């Protein structure tokens, strides 16, 4: 049973870089049928896709965040990571990592529990 | 970019049928996925590729997609179905995922 777990600081200062890691357990991140994604949700609001990465390192980002986002993968640790630079209060949200399944025509079939990140001085 | 439009809220009595719509330009040509999110929890996939169910999802959850509207149908609604529901597609023209704004389902 594949599980995802987010980790990282819960508080980030404005203008700094938000860094989160998602650890994949119960399966290999290098499986060819999946992409690995980050999604966020501000309190009381809807879901916003941030971006995705394939194990080859190929990435796609939400155009609205593209200039500030970097997603990377470490197959040796079975992890992938998110960096969001120059954060403001608008980046305060619950951040989820999720598996994006090509087998299910690109549905997010497994999600982490989410981690709350607050941007505040 | 591609926009998905959902009604903010839908209300239904227990035992009745709930229908939640997701509107988008020619959405019938795309694969639509639906997620259920209960308060304080991560979303759960309940329907993928318009009308298929992941294992463990009750048959009461079904979907359809045609023209400019996709629909999630929940039959014999139970109190435990009360949640937010989101539709999602992959926008191939811009190479990114798009979510609808979400619909809050209230069981009266």
Helical residue percent of chain A?
Answer: under 10%
Please give the number of β-strands of chain B: 9
* Spatial separation of the terminal alpha carbons of chain B: 36 Å
H/E order of the elements of chain A?
EEEEEEEEEEE
The shape of chain A is: globular
Q: Percent of residues of chain B in helical segments?
A: under 10%
What is the mean predicted local confidence, pLDDT of chain B? 97
Distance between the termini of chain A: 39 Å
Instruction: Give the percentage of residues in beta strands of chain B.
Output: over 45%
Given the C-alpha coordinates, what overall shape of chain B results?
globular
Task: Note poorly predicted spans of chain B.
Answer: none
Structural class of chain B: mainly beta
Structure summarized in a few sentences:
Chain A has 121 residues and is mainly beta. Chain A contains no helices and 11 strands. Chain A has strands spanning 3-7, 11-12, 18-25, 34-41, 48-53, 59-61, 69-74, 79-84, 93-101, 107-111, 115-119.
Polypeptide structure, described:
The complex is a heterodimer of chains A (121) and B (108). Chain A has 121 residues and is an all-beta fold. Chain A contains no helices and eleven strands. Chain A has strands spanning 3-7, 11-12, 18-25, 34-41, 48-53, 59-61, 69-74, 79-84, 93-101, 107-111, 115-119. In chain A, strands 2, 4, 5, 6, 9, 10 and 11 form a seven-stranded mixed β-sheet that branches. A four-stranded antiparallel β-sheet of chain A has the order 1-3-8-7, with no helix packed on it. In chain A, strand 5 and strand 6 form a beta hairpin. The mean pLDDT of chain A is 96. Chain B has 108 residues and is mostly beta strands. Helix content of chain B is 0%, strand content 45%. Chain B has no helices and nine strands. Chain B has strands at 9-12, 18-23, 33-37, 44-47, 61-66, 69-74, 83-91, 96-99, 103-107. In chain B, the strands form two sheets. In chain B, strands 1, 3, 4, 7, 8 and 9 form a six-stranded mixed β-sheet that branches. In chain B, strands 2-6-5 form a three-stranded antiparallel β-sheet, with no helix packed on it. In chain B, a hairpin with a 4-residue loop joins strand 7 and strand 8. Chain B is globular. Classes of the chains: A mainly beta (121), B mainly beta (108). The A-B interface holds A 37, 46-49, 51-52, 60-63, 96, 100, 104-109, 111-114 and B 1, 31, 33, 35, 42-45, 48-49, 52, 54, 86, 88, 90, 94-102.
